[in-house]
Amino acid sequence: MNHETLRIWAWRLALGTAILVGILSWQTNASFLRIMIRMILSFLLIYGLSYGSLYGFEKAASPNEDLPENIVSESEADEGRGAFLDVAVGQDEIDPPLAGQVDADLSEGLPDEAKQADMVRRMGWGE
Questions:
Q1: Which of 8, 62, 63, 116 is spaced 20 to 30 A from 32 at the CA atom?
Q2: Does pLDDT of 13 surpass 50?
């Protein structure tokens, strides 16, 4: 999807939200002025958040023409480091060498069959 299509969908989402807010405000017997203010504010809020998200993702993404130069090398991929997006979210370095690993021994491969059987027995699955 290109930027223009996403911008149109953000506009449709904001318009639908504004109409829904208007209907709900009308059912609560709000005055016409309050209904209009609520609809305008809800439209601006939803459209602003949607468009801001699109803008942020567009600025964080690498341009297509620079793609071969921006591809992460294998050594950086092994370290779990990306390029611009990691810097944008404040992750210059990832401290734990095994991010997401529960058992540090799993980084060396699966345990042998005896250890697996012992783990199964301790979990109560071997019965």
A1: 8
A2: yes
